[in-house]
Design a protein that fits this description.
Blueprint lengths: L1 H19 L8 H10 L4 H4 L3 H32 L8
Helix pairs in contact: 1-2, 1-4
């Protein structure tokens, strides 16, 4: 969740900059990254907006874990009621 977002977020910023910039502004990803780091905000510019992105992870992860838990309980109860072990077939 949050660890992967910290790693991937700078690449998302670079991808977005390359997508919205006029053609030819950046030669490649490395050039865009270098140009972004050369700006006054420097490395902080790569993480601008990260807080908003991280705040979206919390509800997503919570819902994901809750749904997983509920489904597992329902499936376990179903197989317990028919006295059968789950199988892959």
């Amino acid at each position: 969740g949050a660890a992967s977002q910290l790693t991937i977020y700078p690449l998302e910023v670079v991808k977005t900059r390359m997508a919205v910039s006029p053609a030819g502004t950046y030669k490649n990803v490395a050039h865009c990254l270098q140009a972004t780091l050369a700006e006054p905000a420097g490395a902080r510019g790569l993480y601008r907006g990260l807080t908003t992105s991280l705040s979206g992870i919390v509800p997503y992860a919570g819902i994901d874990l809750m749904v997983n838990s509920v489904v597992r309980e329902k499936v376990a109860a179903h197989y317990a009621s028919i006295e059968q072990e789950p199988s892959v077939v």
